[in-house]
């Protein structure tokens, strides 16, 4: 009886309170003369017109939609993909710098290299978890003061919680909610590239560490922003393949890093080879930030290059997502719900565990390969097949998810953990002189990337409410970065070149990640049953709920909205990477 009462109360809130949702309030503000209010009203009117033109999903012309999706694919995915290429090449710059003399030139001792590997990831939390740019600026000034006073090295060694200085503050994801996302992302990518170029001028550990702190802060917004773009412009069933499409540039970045590393290794210039690595990669990255500023959309309503009719279709076709509409107002109730939702903490833990392997492989892969008996240039070239294999794993994951039965995404994700577990075991157990076999086992460990992508798509598909979505997407990346911070310290210099503890940490984390996939399956099965009970109670009260206009763009969370069904709806052949 108590459960039914709760469901009735939820239904009442849905139809009586939520009738005055954000879109309705925006439309009523049209009479205000303030320019911001006029803009918001025009924005709301376009959403209203879209729902009037296409009142149901059946009213959408599938041929026109397919054409629109293809156009969106060409306008959005390559921009995110190339940025992701630089995102991962950046991760490998330090790795290739290690084999081209950065340790000797900067006189790195002990775990200095591990700190440099972690610090960029560590401090990018500083921006993502800052209350505002002012707090970030203050922290940066403090950091530079420590560098000038020669105190940074000691501070880093003595305070392994330095990355969590402001962990109770508001994520910068909410800043992105308040600002045009394309402009905010483009600016951050540009600054990230500019600071990467500056790293070439480093003369000692403290200087390079400080620059990696700053570049990491600007880099922080990239992954959550990419997830926001995918969830805004694609149906739930299309999101896994689109995330895979830009994420596979991760593998291209690994291969590209190998080519760049090989080319730079042959440069005979006035500077050390590793300095050219930072200059070249940083310059391209900064230039791409400028392109993203102008080319990415800030909103479906202002996406240049699309006709009015295409914008209406663009809006109406994502009605079935039931995850709300773009909002530039922070909803503190949604933030509270996000932190109290047990699934948020599961995503946090998953992000941490899934990225313990990534942090080590990103920064120590060249040293592991070099330890198998290859010289500097040979090590660079052997990074190319590693990247190609990662691309293959990601494509196979997207294909497997496409053809798998409905609500089996977690099973597919778990299956792709098996090759990486086998590769880790093989690398540890194979004889030290089995160079080719151990290299193949090392390449096999890349399959975890496909699993992580499918788990990311669970957030874009199943988290409703703009503020809640921004928090949860930030949370999983917070966990991911903590995993990346911890990982390099498992790769101890005295264990080179086998790095037994490092590969062991990869293996243990992957086994836990496999178990987490099973946990997610039971969680979403339970959530499905809960939603069905909620809908049944509404039907008994004569309030039949469909995936309708009342809830589609009302900025309701997944808990408030009885319509969305957790896990993954199936995409049709026409939907899959048109």
TrEMBL record:
Membrane topology per the entry is: Multi-pass membrane protein
Q: Which GO terms describe its cellular component?
A: membrane
Q: Which domain of life is it from?
A: Eukaryota
Q: Where are the transmembrane segments?
A: 126-147, 182-202, 214-234, 246-264, 276-296, 381-399, 411-430, 436-459, 471-491, 503-524
What InterPro entries does this protein map onto?
MFS, MFS_trans_sf
Q: What keywords are assigned to this protein?
A: Membrane, Transmembrane, Transmembrane helix, Transport
Where found in the cell? Answer: Membrane
Q: Where is the composition biased (Basic and acidic residues)?
A: 556-578
In this chain, the stretch annotated as Disordered covers 537-578
Q: Name one Pfam family in it.
A: MFS_1
Gene Ontology molecular function: any one? transmembrane transporter activity
Question: Which PANTHER family does UniProt cross-reference here?
Answer: ALLANTOATE TRANSPORTER, PUTATIVE (AFU_ORTHOLOGUE AFUA_1G14700)-RELATED, PERMEASE-RELATED
Q: What is this protein called?
A: Major facilitator superfamily (MFS) profile domain-containing protein
